[in-house]
């Protein structure tokens, strides 16, 4: 019987990196130089880098060891065979196509299968998924349940697809759907999980309408652990067993291995049927590489094979979800509102509610992002009007529906004392929040504003 309340990091550390520690005054200089856009900061002036959980994992000794014994043969690499065996065992899919990351898999699927005017449904499409679908002239359709759009709703599976809506959509559009999708966890919706029951019903609907079902499975292990924790009747199953059932319901999947495969680069497509395989492999050879390496070094394939096993360790997953929950609860205790309930890989602060004195056209999310950096050395990401706001033809500003600030946690990188240190520092951010000011947009690039925009404090 475990009588401890603290969930500890289920690993010890062999290789360490120094942590940058700057004064507030120095950080303010860097912030001004960066035009108040944290994408322009050099990483060595960032103490806690929560920009993304993608590709930022600390790898294990076992992964590094596997990389050293990798077989870098151009064709027929032993390392590919190893990855293929792991993916087959996990997903039940025979055909495994490696890609250099998730969006390369999306590009291949869209180029091979989607045509102008076609539609692809999902709970929420991630932004690279949407971009690849739209690039070939098709439409990305989001059918998440209404609770998934409400930051206050405490629904345990806010990533679920609205089943009646999906049924109606498929009935109306089935002639023009190359494949149907679901994203686990729902990244765009806040890293919220999808229930096993919902995936079962979604699979039935796709099957009934004769549509191929593909899972975007970037965070399949986090999703499977949420199912174990929250879904009635699932607590006694192993996460591997739950994950295998999820995959068994689909016709295939693709993955950005930079998330739950615990690596810095990589991805794959896995398919049950041979139908699309030749076409996809032909495109793969054109832009990614030969089918046994797909744009990666064999050592990357080895690291993925090991990571896909390690991520199913339930002590790791318990710790992983505890980090996010701990930070969300810590923020809430200090009066910092967050999207509820906490998802798998990130905490989302509601900046509109936290800084009600800053109007949306002065970017409350960006103001908070800048203060988190000045005060704590945190690099977070605004997901609000900087990212999604637009100007109408007569120059009026149309704000985003929400003003969120995302803190995405790299896997196995920061420790409990780092998180406690941050929460201590947040007391001061809360005490001084009335003094925070908005920002003025002084450089507005034509596309993807958030990466290169520049601001001035008001
Ligand atoms: C990260 C991500 C992708 C894209 O993967 P990359 O490796 O960044 O190209 C696709 N879907 C989801 C849900 C993701 O989180």
Which SSEs are present, and which pair or pack?
Layout: H1 24-33, E1 48-49, H2 61-68, H3 78-91, E2 95-99, H4 102-113, E3 119-122, H5 127-135, E4 139-142, H6 163-173, E5 180-183, H7 196-208, E6 213-216, H8 220-230, H9 239-248, E7 252-256, E8 267-271, H10 277-287, H11 298-310, H12 314-333, E9 346-350, H13 351-354, H14 364-376, E10 378-379, E11 381-383, H15 385-388, E12 390-391, E13 397-398, E14 404-408, H16 416-431, E15 439-443, H17 449-452, E16 454-457
Parallel strand pairs: 1-10, 3-4, 5-6, 6-7
Antiparallel strand pairs: 2-8, 7-8, 9-14, 11-14, 12-13, 15-16
The protein binds pyridoxal-5'-phosphate.
Write a structural description.
Helix 1 (24-33) packs across helix 14, helix 4 crosses helix 10 (277-287) and helix 8 (220-230) crosses helix 9. By secondary structure, the chain is α/β, with parallel strands linked by helices. The chain has 17 helices and 16 strands. Helices cover 40% and strands 13% of the residues. The radius of gyration is 22 Å and the shape is globular. Strand 5, helix 7 (196-208) and strand 6 form a beta-alpha-beta unit. It has helices spanning 24-33, 61-68, 78-91, 102-113, 127-135, 163-173, 196-208, 220-230, 239-248, 277-287, 298-310, 314-333, 351-354, 364-376, 385-388, 416-431, 449-452; strands at 48-49, 95-99, 119-122, 139-142, 180-183, 213-216, 252-256, 267-271, 346-350, 378-379, 381-383, 390-391, 397-398, 404-408, 439-443, 454-457. The protein folds into 2 domains: 24-53 and 313-457, Aspartate Aminotransferase, domain 1 (Alpha-Beta Complex), CATH 3.90.1150; 61-310, Type I PLP-dependent aspartate aminotransferase-like (Major domain) (Aspartate Aminotransferase, domain 2). The strands form 6 sheets. A 5-stranded mixed β-sheet has the order 2-8-7-6-5, with helices on both faces. A 3-stranded antiparallel β-sheet has the order 9-14-11. Residues 54, 101-103, 126, 128-129, 183, 187, 216, 218, 256, 258-259, 267 line the site of pyridoxal-5'-phosphate (PLP). The site of pyridoxal-5'-phosphate has 15 residues, from helix 4 and helix 5.
């Amino acid at each position: 019987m475990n009588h401890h309340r603290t969930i500890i990091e289920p690993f010890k550390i062999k290789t360490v990196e120094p942590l940058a520690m700057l004064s507030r005054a120095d950080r303010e200089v860097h912030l001004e130089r960066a035009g108040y856009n944290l994408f322009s900061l050099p990483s060595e002036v960032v103490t806690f880098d929560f920009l993304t959980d993608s590709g930022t994992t600390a790898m294990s000794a076992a992964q590094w060891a596997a990389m050293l014994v990798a077989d870098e043969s151009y064709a027929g690499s032993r390392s590919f065979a190893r990855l293929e065996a792991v993916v087959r065992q996990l997903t039940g899919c025979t055909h495994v196509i490696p890609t250099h990351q998730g969006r390369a898999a999306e590009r291949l699927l869209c180029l091979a299968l989607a045509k102008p005017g076609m539609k692809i449904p999902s709970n929420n499409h991630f932004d690279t998924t949407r971009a690849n679908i739209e690039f070939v002239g098709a439409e990305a359709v989001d059918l998440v349940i209404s609770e998934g759009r409400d930051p206050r709703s405490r629904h345990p599976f806010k990533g679920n697809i609205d089943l009646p809506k999906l049924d109606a959509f498929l009935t109306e559009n089935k002639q023009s759907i190359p494949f149907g999708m679901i994203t686990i966890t729902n990244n765009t919706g806040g890293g919220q999980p999808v229930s096993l029951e919902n995936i079962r019903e979604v699979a039935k609907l796709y099957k009934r309408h004769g549509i191929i079902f593909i899972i975007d499975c970037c965070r399949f292990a986090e999703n499977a652990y949420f199912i174990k924790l929250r879904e009635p009747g699932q607590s006694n199953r192993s996460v591997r067993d739950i994950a295998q059932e999820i995959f068994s319901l689909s016709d295939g999947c693709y993955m950005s291995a930079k998330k739950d495969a615990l690596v810095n680069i990589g991805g794959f497509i896995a398919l049950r049927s041979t139908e699309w395989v030749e076409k996809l492999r032909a495109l793969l050879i054109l832009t990614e590489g030969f089918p046994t390496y797909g744009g990666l070094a064999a050592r990357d394939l080895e690291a993925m094979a090991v990571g896909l096993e390690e991520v199913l360790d339930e002590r790791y997953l318990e710790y992983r979800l505890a980090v996010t929950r701990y930070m969300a609860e810590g923020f809430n205790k200090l009066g910092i509102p967050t999207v509820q309930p906490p998802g798998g890989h990130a905490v989302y602060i509601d900046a509109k509610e936290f800084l009600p004195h800053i109007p949306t056209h002065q970017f409350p999310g960006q103001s908070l992002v800048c203060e988190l950096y000045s005060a704590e050395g945190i690099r977070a990401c605004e997901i609000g009007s900087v990212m999604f706001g637009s100007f109408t033809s007569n120059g009026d500003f149309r704000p985003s529906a929400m003003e969120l600030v995302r803190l995405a946690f790299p896997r196995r990188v920061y420790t409990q004392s780092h998180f406690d240190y941050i929460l201590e520092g947040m007391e001061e951010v809360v005490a001084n929040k009335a003094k925070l000011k908005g920002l003025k947009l002084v450089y507005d690039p034509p596309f993807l504003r958030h990466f290169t925009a520049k601001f001035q404090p008001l």
